[in-house]
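Field log, afternoon session.

UNIT: design team B
ACTIVITY: writing a sequence onto a fixed backbone
BACKBONE:
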């Protein structure tokens, strides 16, 4: 049994076989075989090694002829290893002595070698790990043929392991088949983590290098509460986690009973609990868990994975789907396109306009992203605005601009919106002329300019994920600085406090829509600072509602005042945990 620690980003417990994406999504068959199949498995191994070696020799000759013998020698070394008696003997030993299926024996052996090479610090051999993975994939291809599975085509439940997953790859995960995922890279507030929470898939990210320690088919436990990956657990651990999983599901069922009760403090103050969604179909889980509307509809997923821009009609139908679910009278806040940084279009999409970046930027989080990108491509921006305005004729639609960093940017967005309204009026197309307009507060400059921005909009939405990383200069996707990234940092709290104060002066509603709003640790703090609207991922709604219903505004104000006096994020978080447990002892069970 081996335990790896990472960052817990989506709660829950999952138990299942490993699917390691670094082996090109091969499904490694069952770990053990009957004794009467051992000789057959050894024969399959011999055939696969011979075929892989022959294939590698052909590659060696081709590369030598094209690039020279020094490059062909790479494949020559691969061929020598494929016929090495020591390698063959070790794999056969696992088949004969452990009754392992040949695919699992191959993966286990190659990954043991890879781990040994990785442990050699700064040496040439440590760089040859990629060669071992290439050899492993080649053998598995000959053993399994075309029996490879894409994430969307999985036929059996698995735990997905990868160095990293993009938001679009994560969005393809089917919770019925992918029971959890674990990545070497990533941070608490990465968009991959956000999508995992939306899909209710237990997830741990930022574990660091571990893929060489796991073979496809290994039994895994993923603890999405404490950020643990347990490889090949012993029987006692396995039984304990089966009990934890059952308990968690029971608690989820009890929380579900709160869905028809209002999010109201013990002293009668109402809090609007809204849902964050990525896709139209997620609006149904929002309602089922008690959301009063959609506080953040992220629209960039209309673009990801597409070979062309979505049309105005595609935008409109996506928005109308959500409005119909929300029965028209519940608010739906649509955030305009927020591509860039860790959410990219495929290269070439939109290239006909010349407006898209076609090469990586040195620092994409500080580069051409979000509203900046839209202001460089007005055709795309106006297409989305037209669809949002048209949808506003059918329900309580509100538009929100992300990544606003200057007053001029906001005014430019509003000016373009006014132009689109004029166009629709001339065409006789219905829309809500008083469509509420909001801006996200997610960079320090916007927080500091909150008074000026408040004169221009109907509402603010504090995007704490970006606000934290820009304030603390700590990349939210970088596990090596994850300890710096904390919603409880005094600098972040002071910015939030200033935004709330500025909004109150101009009667502007303030929503908090980042991951901070879905963490029960910060609920009393936000209430005490004056926040009365929270937008969270669907699975967090019942938990936050339970905390709200256990607190009073009076005690929350006292908690916020004391938290604002503390000097470090650690002190703030420890204090908030203590106070939340005081009103709700089971808050962090």
């Amino acid at each position: 049994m081996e335990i790896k620690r990472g960052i817990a980003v989506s709660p829950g417990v999952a138990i299942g076989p490993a699917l390691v994406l670094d082996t090109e999504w091969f499904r490694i068959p069952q770990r053990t075989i009957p004794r009467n199949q051992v000789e057959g498995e050894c024969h399959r191994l011999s055939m696969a090694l011979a075929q892989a070696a022959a294939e590698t020799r052909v590659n060696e000759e081709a590369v030598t002829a094209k690039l020279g013998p020094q490059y062909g020698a790479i494949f020559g070394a691969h061929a020598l290893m494929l016929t090495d008696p020591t390698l063959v003997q070790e794999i056969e030993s696992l088949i004969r002595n452990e009754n392992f299926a040949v695919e699992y024996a191959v993966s286990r052996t190659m990954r043991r070698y890879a781990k040994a090479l990785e442990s050699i610090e700064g040496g040439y051999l440590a760089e040859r790990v990629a060669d071992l993975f290439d050899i492993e994939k080649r053998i598995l291809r000959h053993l399994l043929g075309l029996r490879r599975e894409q994430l969307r085509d999985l036929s059996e439940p698995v735990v997905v392991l990868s160095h990293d997953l993009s938001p679009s790859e994560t969005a393809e995960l089917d919770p019925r088949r992918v029971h959890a995922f674990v990545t070497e890279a990533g941070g608490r507030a990465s968009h991959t983590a956000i999508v995992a929470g939306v899909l209710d898939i237990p997830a741990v990210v930022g574990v660091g290098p571990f893929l060489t320690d796991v073979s496809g088919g290994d039994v895994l436990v993923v603890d999405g509460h404490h950020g643990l990956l347990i490889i090949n657990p012993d029987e006692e651990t396995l039984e304990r986690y089966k009990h934890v999983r059952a308990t968690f599901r029971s608690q989820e069922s009890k929380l579900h009973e709160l869905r028809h009760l209002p999010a109201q403090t013990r002293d009668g103050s109402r809090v609007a609990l809204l849902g964050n969604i990525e896709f139209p179909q997620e609006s149904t889980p929002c309602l089922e868990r008690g959301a009063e509307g959609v506080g953040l509809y992220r629209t960039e997923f209309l673009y990801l994975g597409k070979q062309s821009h979505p049309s105005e009609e595609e935008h409109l139908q996506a928005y109308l789907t959500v409005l119909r679910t929300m029965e028209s009278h519940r608010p739906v806040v649509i955030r305009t396109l927020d591509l860039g940084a860790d959410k990219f279009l495929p290269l070439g999409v939109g290239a006909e306009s010349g407006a898209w970046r076609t090469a990586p930027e040195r620092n994409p989080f500080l580069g051409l992203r979000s509203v900046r990108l839209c202001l460089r491509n007005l055709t795309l921006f106006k297409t989305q605005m037209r669809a949002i305005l048209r949808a506003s004729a059918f329900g309580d639609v509100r538009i929100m601009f992300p990544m606003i960093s200057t007053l001029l940017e906001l005014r430019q967005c509003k000016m373009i919106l006014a132009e689109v309204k004029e166009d629709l009026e001339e065409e006789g197309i219905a829309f809500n002329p008083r469509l509420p307009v909001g801006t996200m507060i997610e960079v320090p400059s916007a927080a500091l300019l909150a008074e000026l921005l408040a004169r221009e909009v109907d509402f603010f939405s504090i995007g704490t994920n970006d606000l934290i990383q820009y304030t603390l200069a700590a990349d939210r996707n970088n596990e090596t600085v994850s300890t710096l990234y904390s919603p409880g940092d005094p600098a972040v709290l002071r910015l939030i406090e200033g935004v709330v104060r500025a909004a109150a002066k101009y009667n502007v509603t303030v929503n908090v829509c980042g991951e901070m709003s879905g963490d029960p640790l910060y609920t009393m703090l936000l209430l005490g600072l004056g926040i009365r609207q929270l937008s969270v991922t669907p699975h967090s709604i019942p938990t936050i509602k339970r905390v709200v219903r256990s607190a009073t505004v009076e005690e929350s104000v006292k908690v916020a005042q004391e938290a604002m006096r503390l000097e470090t994020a650690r002190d703030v978080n420890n204090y908030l945990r203590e106070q939340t447990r005081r009103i709700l002892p089971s808050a962090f069970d």
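LOG NOTE: The chain has three domains: 2-20+149-251, 35-144, 261-583.
NEXT ACTIVITY: expression trials, pending approval
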